[in-house]
Amino acid sequence: MLPAMAAKLRIAIVGPGRLGTALAMKLRSAGYTISEIVSRNNIASKRKAAILARKVRALVSTIDTARANADVVWFCVPDREIKNAAQQLGSAIDWKRKIAFHSSGALLSDELNILRRQGAAVGSIHPMMTFVTGSIPSLNGVPFAMEGDTAAIRAARRIVRDLDGGAFTIRRQHKIAYHAWGSFASPLLVATLVTAEQVARDAGLSAVAARKKMLPIVRQTIANYEMLGAAGAFSGPIVRGDAEIVRKHLQVLKKVPEAREVYLALARAAMRYLPAQNRKKLKKALDE
Ligand SMILES: NC(=O)c1ccc[n+]([C@@H]2O[C@H](COP(=O)([O-])OP(=O)(O)OC[C@H]3O[C@@H](n4cnc5c(N)ncnc54)[C@H](OP(=O)(O)O)[C@@H]3O)[C@@H](O)[C@H]2O)c1
Questions:
Q1: pLDDT-based confidence at 6, cuts 50/70/90?
Q2: Cα 164 from Cα 141, distance rounded (Å)
Q3: Substitution candidate for ligand 1 out of 13, 21, 37, 40 with most atoms within 8 A of CB
Q4: Strand 72-75 to 59-62 pairing
């Protein structure tokens, strides 16, 4: 039996990084007790843990001294470290009646098998949101993809509801594709924007000026996408069928070869998935 679900669960956070920090703050605001912030055993990591622990009124410990006196232990470490951190905590704690989560969007709850074997209910709980240093996003309406043991999923549903997020289950075989999808929604979107900054240099603008001048159109594009969907939000030479302009873009982009590759890949995706006039000539311009 897992702890009575009437009272809010006590949660220990392992890894006071980007996600761990935001999650600890949000959980605390939602009325959860953060029992402990667990870091690696070095000065810089311990300092980060101490700063966060002060904010959420938690104890601090390191992975080799952690007590995990909590109902839930939430691993917020890099994907490659989840198994290792679970192993390090594995032997030190009685895992019976405990829940362990990790938040990798790509990996399964099986990363925590070592704890499952010791009696913990384990799950992977991934918020489809971006967490970066210095910004704590709202979790209102944020989807959390969940997979794992029944008791872990039950607890996760309740926590996600308290965070104002939306919980949904993801099939094990879909996780990698799910995460690849999410990569387009934030990291690769930023990669597109930084590529645009490089192209702007060729138009005589610094990266800072480009960012400032791009923001109105970027914001409006996202607003149009939200309101009208992809086809309705799509403007520019491809939808108009201005093949000669596309050819000229590709000519000038020879000076920024990485940007040219990105342009070609995205233009080909646009031709496949979005409305375009003059397709034959456009295709020829892209294939030259
Ligand atoms: N950031 C996002 O937007 C986001 C979104 C959804 C899900 N996630 C998931 O959240 C998890 C964490 O990602 P993140 O972006 O928050 O990473 P991060 O900023 O690099 O933070 C990772 C934290 O884990 C600590 N750590 C590393 N190895 C450890 C170990 N063996 N024991 C204890 N602590 C350890 C790091 O400490 P040091 O400072 O000492 O390195 C750091 O505090 C990943 O599974 C990721 O897939 C992230």
A1: low
A2: 6
A3: 40
A4: unpaired
- Residues near ligand 1 with C-beta < 6 Å? 14-20, 38-40, 45, 48, 63, 76-79, 81, 84-85, 102-105, 126-127, 130-131
Q: What is the pLDDT of residues 159-173, one digit of tens each?
A: 999 999 999 999 999
| Whether 73 contacts 12, CB under 8 Å | yes
**Element containing residue 263 per DSSP (H, E):** helix 257-273
What's the pLDDT tens digit per position in 103-157?
999 999 999 999 999 999 999 999 999 999 999 999 999 999 999 999 999 999 9
| pTM higher than 0.70 | yes
CA dist 170 and 208 (Å) reads 40
89 pLDDT above the threshold of 80: yes
Tell me how far the alpha carbon of residue 103 lies from the centroid of ligand 1, in angstroms.
Answer: 9
Write the residue with the smallest CA distance to atom 11 of ligand 1: 76
- Distance of alpha carbon 156 from alpha carbon 150, whole angstroms: 10
Q: Please list, residue by residue across 146-182, b when 16 or more beta carbons sit within 10 angstroms of its beta carbon and e when fewer do.
A: bbbbebbbebbbebbebbebebeebeeeebeebbeeb
Tell me the per-residue pLDDT of 194-234, one tens digit each, with 9 for 90 and over: 999 999 999 999 999 999 999 999 999 999 999 999 999 99
CB-count exposure of residue 246 (10 Å: 0-12, 13-18, 19+): buried
